[in-house]
Design goal:
Order of helices and strands: HHEEEEEH
Helix content: 25-40%
Radius of gyration: 20 Å
Distance between the termini: 26 Å
Structural class: alpha+beta
Largest sheet: 3 strands, antiparallel
């Protein structure tokens, strides 16, 4: 699901909100989550999961095409850990395999 699909879905489920209002709310939510992660804070959505920032040290890597050694700088990357409720919901028996075909 893309951000625009999420906005359209929320707007259709809540007809008393305009599309512009839903777009603004989703934008504010994502901006606040991004700002919190940039400050090094943890963002936890109960029942869904938690977003954190992991720091990767500088290292020596290889260019896969040429095999040449390259320097990879230190960086911070976002990390998501699914919550228990989300994992259980994804793994509940539905009578279908993961690709939607019947066993």
């Amino acid at each position: 699901m893309t951000k625009s699909e999420l906005i359209a879905e929320l707007a259709s489920e809540h007809p008393y909100l305009t599309l512009a209002d839903v777009d603004r709310m989703v934008g504010v939510l994502f901006d606040e989550m991004t700002d919190a992660l940039a400050r090094g804070e943890r963002v936890e959505l109960r029942g869904f999961g938690a977003f954190t920032v992991k720091h990767r040290r500088a290292r020596a890597g290889r260019n896969p095409r040429t095999g040449e050694m390259v320097s990879v700088e230190e960086k911070s990357v976002p990390f998501f850990k699914a919550g228990k409720e989300l994992r259980e919901r994804l793994n509940e028996p539905t009578g279908k395999s993961r690709n939607g075909a019947r066993p």
